[in-house]
Design brief:
By secondary structure, this protein is mostly helical. It is built from five helices and no strands. The chain has helices at residues 2-17, 19-40, 62-65, 67-72, 77-93. α1 packs across α2. The two termini are 18 Å apart. The mean pLDDT is 75.
Length: 94
Amino acid sequence: MALSLGVLAGTLIGEQVGWRVAFGAVSLVALAVIGWISVSVTGVGQPAIEQADAKPSGPAPESAKSPLRQTLVVPGVAAIMVTVTTFVLGHTII
C-alpha cells in the first residue's frame, strides 16, 4: 500500500510545496520514528552485561556466539528474509 499510495501522496505534496519540502518532511518523520523506536522498544534476547571484575568460567554459550544463526533457525524467518531481499532487489533494479 505504501508503494502505491506513497507515490501519489508524494507527487501531490511535491507539486503543492516543492520536492525539497516533501523530502525534508519524510526525513523528519523518519527521524521521529527512529527516536520513538529507540526509546520504546527494549532489548529482547540480549545477554545481561556481566560485572567488570567477574571472570568468564568457560566458553560462551552458542546463543551468545551467533545470534544471526539463532534467529535464522526460527521457522519461517529464513523464507521471509529471502522474500524481502528478493523484493527489495527487484524493486531497486526495475
